[in-house]
């Protein structure tokens, strides 16, 4: 019987499941929303139970659509945002919320409550920090764990397990406590190279010696490569919930952006066969954006997370730059514009999503995706609403918008939208330039994530960076990356490397266009730099003034 593989992706806003055949062809997908609590003070929380139930519903819906026998599933893999899950010793949720609600047991990656703790950790200048670009981010797990210890001691002490969300999902599916090299290397300061492991001096220095004393029992004692077959496969309970046979192989997980990277960068390019992953950047743009480079030797790029050994492609190093708010910044710009109500109603009447509606109008009016950027000639956006991840590693950066007028119509909203995309593209270009300055050079960038479907986004990114921007052949590279984990766990392929070559391929490409657009973007980037200086200068000017 031909085998199929399931990938489950937990993004910030929803869970999705995809069923793929052994060649990587997508047979069916389904999506389910997840709950999220936002509170003042950069608090963003979720519920691991809600997320697991949403995963189960997505898998069952995708299987119903694929209309294949559950017994034909040869393996399943999971990816998720890098959020922190807290459970008691019996595996029940423990609150991370000052509300005390047990169901709120996930500190979401974008929650910046631990900015002060990140600063304290950075002040130690511990050698481990070299492997996160020289500066830990409040989006990583150690600052969050330190926050819990300092501010919610009861939960910190009562916890039996601290998981990255992707590892929680495999634990929930199989009962196995192994963690993936991807999660712990990229988010937990674990060193996967040269027998590094957990660093006891680091934990002692940052005030988390608890983990050393308890021999890392709550954060993971066994670290395995993504795709490693876990436990005895699906437990009886998980099998019932997912509607799959007990014992279905489950592979160790990846973080969501990294699943997108695996699903995107290793594909065949036409007849040219498998390619050099070192020449290919992955840009995964959803709520946030991650720009990832793969190298044979470690490259230290200040302000860019990594280098992480086996953080994404096994036995390669990973540099991971990023933008904390990407799609989230665009969503926010659109929602806060006075034309939002009118534009949403017009989009609905055409049966389109708001962004698709705007894009069609913009591209038609401008006479192409490349020239659409000209609409943003006089509006400029530094879209860093929740800080700069890379290359400045400054979580206190905030957005700046210049060139607003009193226009409230849809055309004004379009200008702001395009200006926001240009701002994101200039942020991306800064990361790519930081890569290049430290020896990480690539000629092609492969895009995944929700925003990659947009021809406007791809063209602006190509024109701004000067790189060829390619899509993977599959329209769901993140789900494919997760399904590849299932294929490796199920024994269809021997390694992630082989799986990438067999299950994926490159698709459509956008080339950088006319030199006049390059000149336009170069000029507009100068304004972008002014906005960055304005943000820095205004924060510096107000630093000595007490908060109201
Ligand atoms: N054309 C576009 N331009 C910019 N952002 C877009 C575009 N299309 C979708 N997005 C953004 O992508 C995000 C959704 O992507 P997705 O990968 O599904 O998110 P996540 O996995 O983070 O939940 C939303 O913030 C949405 O606004
Ligand atoms: O930090 C990340 C990866 O290292 C991701 O950006 C984070 O997990 C959120 O992902 P998404 O934007 O797809 O919801």
From TrEMBL:
Which UniProt keyword terms apply here? Kinase, Transferase
Pinpoint the Carbohydrate kinase FGGY C-terminal domain residues. 281-489
Q: Recall the taxonomic lineage recorded for the source organism.
A: Bacteria, Pseudomonadati, Pseudomonadota, Alphaproteobacteria, Hyphomicrobiales
* Molecular function as annotated in GO: D-ribulokinase activity
What the entry lists under InterPro entries is as follows: ATPase_NBD (IPR043129), Carb_kinase_FGGY (IPR000577), FGGY_C (IPR018485), FGGY_N (IPR018484), FGGY_RbtK-like (IPR006003)
Q: What is this protein called?
A: D-ribulokinase
User: EC number(s) per UniProt?
Assistant: 2.7.1.47
Q: Which family does it belong to?
A: Belongs to the FGGY kinase family.
Domain Carbohydrate kinase FGGY N-terminal intervals = 5-263
The protein's matches in Pfam families, at most eight in alphabetical order, are given as: FGGY_C, FGGY_N
